[in-house]
Design a protein that fits this description.
5-stranded mixed sheet; alpha+beta; 21% strand; 148 residues; single chain
Length: 148
């Protein structure tokens, strides 16, 4: 076996290690991506609003929340530009799951609220409570209907 063939696995492992570091660095800014929401079990019935998209789930502040069809249950995968357009709904450190509300861990260590396992997001073009401009965006983003 030539020296080049012996070195190939080490070069590949080094490149993979550098890629992993670069990926982690890309998403490890000083400020976490997203908007923090403090859902509370005792007020869970008040997290809905009637919109043009129907009765939808909202943040405690009344903003429509969305799920992304391509995002797996229990796993956050919207980062970078995706998270700029679809900010994750982040959970405070003391947040506890309840009912259909669960928590998923993001790669930067923050936790994101999920509804029935699907991570929750806002839409950057929604400006006021009741806006639902992101519903059915690209056929993959959907306002969370309370009847789901």
């Amino acid at each position: 076996m030539t020296a080049a063939h012996k070195a190939s696995p080490w070069i590949l492992l080094t490149m993979l290690g550098l890629y992993a570091c670069t990926l982690a660095d890309e998403y490890s800014g000083d400020e976490p991506e997203g908007i923090q929401a403090n859902y509370v079990a005792s007020q869970s019935g008040s997290y809905t609003r009637s919109t043009a998209a129907g009765d939808v789930l909202t943040t405690p502040d009344g903003m429509t929340v969305y799920i992304y069809d391509k995002e797996a249950e229990g796993s956050a995968s919207c980062y970078g530009e995706c998270a700029e357009n679809w900010p994750p709904v982040l959970a405070p450190a003391e947040a506890k799951p309840f009912g259909d509300f669960t928590l998923v861990k993001r790669i930067d260590g923050t936790r994101q609220w999920a509804y029935r396992g699907k991570p929750l997001h806002l839409y950057h073009e929604d400006q006021a409570p009741g806006d639902a401009k992101g519903d059915n965006y690209d056929g993959f983003w959907h306002a969370v209907r309370t009847s789901r």
